[in-house]
């Protein structure tokens, strides 16, 4: 409980002048206890090397919030679990972090090796602002280095959506159309990229030319560059993909 108490104290001390915050419940869960908190969903988190969860229920400026801090084995794995959880994001009022997803009822973010989720019950503007205050407070009192989480071979393509897949559960849940190739290539991880201007997605993974030589057939468009392989299905938006691959 010591770690949890420290987190609670940080939130309260940092925001006391700006918001009235009350911790009404707090609990921690390790990998063995996570199933009891989220039932079947725990297996996906274990796939991303979950280490510890801290949960707090808060009252902030009259709003009820749930704050979840999932500690993963690395920042890239924290981004991974974030990437498969977010959906239909819009920008938060204050763009506090590079990887942040705001919806009416939830604020999600990557912070170091932590995946953060702040949930409200009403979806109101006041509740959303209260969630941002909690996130800002946590950041102020938990310093982190903000090294880039994504490699250049991903960011240079300027995708609108990036998912980092670290196992079959993630693939089956969020990129089912790619599971066959993922298994065929015996991959441990990959990125799935999407763009708003096209219905096609691209799988990206570390590979040499020999390992992907058989993919460049009637089924796939393939590009290999500096140890990274880019694969897209043929027949969906070939013009878009061919133009995209020219930028590599």
Give the H and E element order. HEHHEEHEEEHHEHHEEHEEH
Q: Return the CATH topology of the largest domain.
A: Protein Transport Mog1p, Chain A
What's the rounded overall pLDDT mean? 88
Number of domains: 2
CA(first)-CA(last) distance:
49 Å
The CATH class of the largest domain, by name, is Alpha Beta
Oligomeric form of this entry? single chain
| Count of beta strands | 11
Q: State the secondary-structure class.
A: alpha+beta
The largest sheet, given as strand count, sense and whether it forms a barrel, is: 6 strands, antiparallel
Strand content: 25-35%
Shape: elongated
Q: Would you identify the CATH architecture of the largest domain?
A: 3-Layer(aba) Sandwich
Count of alpha/pi helices: 10
Ranges where pLDDT stays below 50 over 5 or more residues in a row are: 1-18
InterPro entries: DUF6599 (IPR046534)
Signal peptide: 1-19
Protein name: DUF4369 domain-containing protein
Organism: Carboxylicivirga sediminis
Structural description of this entry:
This protein has 248 residues and is α+β, with helices and mostly antiparallel strands. It folds into two domains: 2-141, Protein Transport Mog1p, Chain A (3-Layer(aba) Sandwich); 152-246, no CATH class. Helices cover 33% and strands 30% of the residues. It has ten helices and eleven strands. The strands form two sheets. The protein has a six-stranded antiparallel sheet with strand order 1-2-3-6-5-4. The chain is elongated.
